[in-house]
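YM 10:42: Nuclear pore complex protein sequence, as discussed on the call
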Amino acid sequence: KKQAYIKYICTVYGRQLKQVLKFLQKQDESLLEDIWTLLKAGRRDEACELCRSAGQPWRAATLCPFGGMDHFPSVEALMKNGMNRILQSIELESGIGRQWRLWKWASYCASEKIADQDGGKYDTAIYAVQCSNLKRLFPICTDWESACWVMVKSWLDVQIDLELERSQPNCLKSNRNDIDESLVQVDGGSQLLVGAECWPRPVLMQQPHDLYALLQKLHSGYVIYANYLRGRLQLVCLTILMPKKLKPDMMHEAVSRGCKEQHRLVQARKSNYFLSNGMNLMVGDIPHLVDLLWAWISPSEDAQKIFRPHGDSQMIRFGAHLVLVLRYLVADQIKDTFREKLMTVGDLILHMYAMFLFSQNHEELVGVYASQLASHLCIDLFVHMMELRLNGSVHMKYKIFLSAMEYLPFSFEDESRGNFIEIIDRVLSRSREIKPGNYDDESLDVAEQHRLQSLQKAMVIQWLCFTPPSTINNAEVISAKLLLKALMHSNILFREFALISMWRVPKMPIGAHMLLRFLAEPLKLHPSTLLPSDDHDTSENLNEFNDWREYYSCDATYRHWLKINTENEDVSHDLSWDERQREIGAAKETLSSSLSLLKRNERPWLVYLEDTTNESDEPLYLELHATAMVCLLSGECRRPDATSCTTLTNALYSSVSEEVVLSRKLMVDVSVSAMDTYCIEVVLRCLAVEGDGLERYESNDGGILATIMAAGFKGNL
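YM 10:58: structure's back
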C-alpha cells in the first residue's frame, strides 16, 4: 500500500510539475516576445527594465552590458556607469572596441546555442539582433517590413564594426576585399574561410555590400549565411539558396510573398531579382519609379475614354503623394531629363488620383491635386467634372466650384497653371455645341427634344451664380465678374431660346425660365455694388436681360392662351359662354402685354444704343448662320434632302422682292447639316446699308435678314 501510495503521489506531482513548467514556458515566451517588440522599436532601456521587473536581471545585463544608452564601451561610458578601473584599463590596453567585440561574440554564440537547442525563436532573435546574425533573425520575420528592418539594422551595425576595425592600426582589416582574398578552394569545389583572426567575418559574410545590394537581396530572395561545422570557427561554409529551396527555419513564406505584392514588386529583370519602390527612391531612380507607378494604375487601351480610376486605390494615392513629395522636396537635385519625366508622367498619376477622388464624391479635394497639373490637363479635368455633375445636386456642384476657386487662380497668371475663367469659358462654349438628336422614333416630339436641350444649356449658368468664398482675394470683384459673365451668356441663350421656342405649342420654354430663376437671387443682392452703372457693357447686358425677362413674361401669357385655345378646339361645339369668355380674356391679355412691350416710350425693346459706323471705303456685309429643322405643324420632323434644300432656298429668295435681292446682293444657301442629318444649315448674306447694318437701326426689326428668317419660321416653310 505504501508503494502504491508513493507511486500515486509521484504521478500526481509529476503531472502538476509538468503543468507548472508548461505555464512558466508560456509566460517566458510571452516575456521574450515583449522584449523583442521593444528592441525592434529601439526602446532598449524599457526592454531591460522589463527584464528586471520579471525577475531576470541577468537578461538585462546581456542586452545592455555597458549600461544606459552608451552601448559602446568607451572610457567615458565606463566611468559614467561606475565600471571598475580594471575594465577601463583592459579597454585601453586591448584596443578600442575590444569589449564591444567580446559582447558581440557572446551574443553570437548565445544565438547559435539557443537555436541548436530549440530554445525559442524570440530568445534566439534577441541575441541574434545584437550581433547581426541574419541566419537566426530571418525565421522570426513573418512580413516584409520585419525582414527589411533586420537586414538594414544588421547592415548598419556591421558598417560600425568595420569602421572600428579600420581604426585599429594593429588589427586585421576585415573588409570585403580581405574576405574575398581569404577564400580558398577545397576539394569538392566549396570555398572555406581561413585565418585565426576572422571576427566579425562570419557575420560580415551574411551582409550585403551596400544599401543597393541590401534591397536587391531582400527582393531577390537570396540568402547568404554562415554555417559553422564541427564547432571550428575557422571553417565557414558559404551557402547560397533560393527561397523555394530554403529550410523552414530560414525565410518565412510571408516575406517572399510580400516581395511579390504590388506595392513591393517593381519589375522582374533579366538578372532574376526584383526592385522595390523604396529601392528606386534610395538609389535615385526617379524615372523608373514614376514609369512603374503609372504602369500599375494606367487604364487599358479599351478604357482610355472612361472617366474613372484604374488599379488599386491605395497605389493611386501613394503614387500621387510621392510625385508631390519628389517635386517639392528634391526638385533641385533632379536632373533635367528626370524632371521632365517627373512632370509628364507625374501629371498623369495626379490626374488619375483626382479622378479617383471625384469618383468617391470628394470633389472638395480635387482642386488640391488638379492645381499641380499642367494647364491643359487641369482645365480638361474640371470641364469634364462640371459636365458630369451638371444635373447633380447643388451641394455637389458647389463643392466643385469651391475647389476650383480656392486652389486655382481666377484669371490667367501663369501659362503653366489652369485658371477658373478658362475652365468656365470652355464649359459655356461646349454647352452650346449642337448635339445630334434621336428622331427615328416617331413618338418623340422634336419640339420637346429642343425644350430639354435648352434646359441642359441653361443649367451651366448655375456655375456662375455661386458665391465665391470670402477667404479668397477680391471676392466681391470676382463675384461681380461672374455675374456679368452670367448676364452675357444668358442673353446669348435667350436669343437662341426665343428662336427654338417658336413652335406653336403650349409648353413653356423651360430653358429660358431656368435662366431667369438662376439669376433672380444674384441680381436681387445689391445690384448696384455688383454691377456698377458706369460700366457701359454691364449696363447694356443688364438692359438686354431685363428686356428678355419682359419678353418671356409676355411669352408665358401667350402660352397660357394657347393652352386654353388648344383645349377648347377639341370640344368647340360644347363650349359654354364662360369658357369662351375665358379664352377671349386670355387672348386680350396676351395682346396687351405684347403691345406694351413693343411700344414702350422710355426705351424701345432690344435696341442697341451704339452706332455702327463703317469708316472704311470697302463695302460691309452682314452674314447670318443658322441651324434649323424642317418640321410639319404637328411637330413631326422631316429628314431633308437635296430637293428640299433647293426648294427652301428658292422660297427664301422669294420672300423678298427681286429688287432687294439685286440691290442688297442677297445670297441664300441651304444644305444638310454634317453633324445632324435631320438638320439644315442656312447661310444668309447681304450688303449692309444705312439703317440696316450701318449707323442706327431705323425700324429696329432686324433688317432684311430677319425678314427672311421670319418668313421661314412664320411662313411654315
